[in-house]
């Protein structure tokens, strides 16, 4: 089964020397994606956080980040309402090492949240 890609590119409002995308157009693209008029969104890092993009089934990352917070933000874009996948394309060498470091830091970051006495205490209080 094949599905035609109906896509647009989503970039930030400023592109350095090049003019970025106006906020009005950004809002319309996100609305079109959430309402199903677009089924693919090609985005820069501007779409990583702070936007209600809607249901995302697949994220394809063309680079990796060493920051566990940015990695969690990127991975968290999929699988909110239904099962989703994230694929990270990396090259051997430094980029692969950076990816492994980010995944290890992410695991430690998540474990520190899950094992937090403050969070456990709050959960017991409201359960």
TrEMBL record:
<keyword id="KW-0067">ATP-binding</keyword>
<keyword id="KW-0547">Nucleotide-binding</keyword>
<feature type="domain" description="Helicase C-terminal">
    <location>
        <begin position="1"/>
        <end position="127"/>
    </location>
</feature>
<dbReference type="GO" id="GO:0009378">
    <property type="term" value="F:four-way junction helicase activity"/>
</dbReference>
<dbReference type="Pfam" id="PF00271">
    <property type="entry name" value="Helicase_C"/>
</dbReference>
<protein>
    <submittedName>
        <fullName>Fanconi anemia group m</fullName>
    </submittedName>
</protein>
<dbReference type="InterPro" id="IPR027417">
    <property type="entry name" value="P-loop_NTPase"/>
</dbReference>
<dbReference type="GO" id="GO:0016787">
    <property type="term" value="F:hydrolase activity"/>
</dbReference>
<keyword id="KW-0347">Helicase</keyword>
<keyword id="KW-0378">Hydrolase</keyword>
<dbReference type="GO" id="GO:0045003">
    <property type="term" value="P:double-strand break repair via synthesis-dependent strand annealing"/>
</dbReference>
<dbReference type="GO" id="GO:0036297">
    <property type="term" value="P:interstrand cross-link repair"/>
</dbReference>
<dbReference type="GO" id="GO:0043138">
    <property type="term" value="F:3'-5' DNA helicase activity"/>
</dbReference>
<dbReference type="InterPro" id="IPR001650">
    <property type="entry name" value="Helicase_C-like"/>
</dbReference>
<dbReference type="GO" id="GO:0000400">
    <property type="term" value="F:four-way junction DNA binding"/>
</dbReference>
<dbReference type="GO" id="GO:0005524">
    <property type="term" value="F:ATP binding"/>
</dbReference>
């Amino acid at each position: 089964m094949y599905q035609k890609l109906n896509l647009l590119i989503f970039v930030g409002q400023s592109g350095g020397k090049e003019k970025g995308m106006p906020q009005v157009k950004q809002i319309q693209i996100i609305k079109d994606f959430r309402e199903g008029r677009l089924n693919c969104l090609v985005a820069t890092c501007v779409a990583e956080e702070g936007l209600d993009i809607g249901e995302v089934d697949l994220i394809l990352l063309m680079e990796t980040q060493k920051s566990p917070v940015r990695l969690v933000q990127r991975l968290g874009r999929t699988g909110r309402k239904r099962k989703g996948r994230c694929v990270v394309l990396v090259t051997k060498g430094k980029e692969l090492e950076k990816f492994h470091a980010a995944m290890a830091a992410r695991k430690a970051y998540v474990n520190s949240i899950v094992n937090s006495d403050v969070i456990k205490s709050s959960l017991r209080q409201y359960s």
